[in-house]
Every structure is written in C-alpha cells, then in structure tokens.
Prior knowledge:
By secondary structure, the protein is mostly helical. It is built from 9 helices and 2 strands, in the order E-E-H-H-H-H-H-H-H-H-H. It has helices at 17-38, 45-52, 56-62, 66-91, 95-112, 114-122, 133-155, 165-185, 196-211, and strands spanning 5-8, 14-16. A two-stranded antiparallel ribbon has the order 1-2. Helix 1 (17-38) crosses helix 6.
Amino acid sequence: MNQSVNQRQPGGTMIAEDQLEKKRNHIRQAAVTVFARMGYHNSRVSDIAKEAEVAYGLFYHYFPSKDDVLIDIFQNAWTNLLKGLEHIDKKIENPVEKIKAVVKFSLDEYEKNPDLLKVIVMDVPRLDKFYSEENQRIFNRYFHRVSQMITKGQEAGVFNKDVSPQIISYLTLGAVDALIRQYVYNPSIKKGQGKVSKMTDQMVKVLVNGIL
C-alpha cells in the first residue's frame, strides 16, 4: 500500500512520504560524502547540492540548514545502531558473546561506511546543536542498552558484580570511538596488525577480561 501524499514540492507538485524520504536520504548520503572529504566547517550547502546533483534551492526543501542535515545524519545513523544492539540483545544469550557482537557490529559498520562513521565521530560532537535534550536522549540509549547487557551478565554470574555496568558501557563506546579516530588520523594502521578484524579481537579481549 502506498504512503499517503502529504507534502508539496516547489511549484505545487505533491510528493508522497516514501518519495520524500528517498530524496532526503539521497541528500543525506551526499552530505556524508562531502563532510568526510572536506570537513563539516569547510563544506557549503552548494557543495552538498552539487554532490547530490540537485538544485541549490531544492536542498532547503528537505533540510532547513547545513546544521540540520548533520543532525539528521547522526539521528539516522544512531537509530540504526540502536536497532542493531536490540537485535544482538535478543538474538544472543551468552553475555560474553553479546559484548563481542556489540564491538564487532560497530566496527563492521565502519568498514561498510567509513565516511559515515568519520562524520559521526569527528564532526557531530563539534556542533553545538547536537547537545539538545532530544539528541542526548537518543545518544544515551546506547549506554542504557549496553548497561542492560552487562547487568544481565552479572545476574548470570558471568561478569564481576563489582564493576559498574554504566562505566563499562562508556568504555565500550569509547574504545570503538578511539579506534575509529586512529583510522581517521593514521590510515596506515589499517594494514597488518591494525586490520579491523584483529583490532576487534584485541579490543574485545581487553574489555571482556576486565569484567569477568
């Protein structure tokens, strides 16, 4: 069944919700490419419009500003990350394997779309608008979900009950964040011992051994 038509394009043409989101996603992906290549603060709306192959003015039909498209990139990516964590939590019973899967999922996402993760890690935190109550609620859901996984492991007698689930959730995201930053700053480390698969194994070993 088709989505209901609910918005009007410039010139008076109506556009369906599914087509609207398709166009927004196209511009969103173009913005990721531009921000990753040029840096957020060096990029202009005209650069995004050119990359997306849309008219400059049409950008503003889908996003109010360059700030808003960056926030939209974060919200969209973080929502997908949270869906992935939810799937892991429901699918995997073993507490250790859950934590392994969380780290692996996050770094697999980097390998699939390094530009997106670069923008999330490097550009989003520098934007004042990111620090709104809405975005902080979305951001903190990651820590809540991982904390729940640690708590379940403690209740099962697998993880040390003396460690704080919340602090471990911070360390988990912090470790992933730090590794991605190293890939951005020092691309050469992705060779040999710095390959994502090897770094994932080492990171998981340190995190898991610390809470057993």
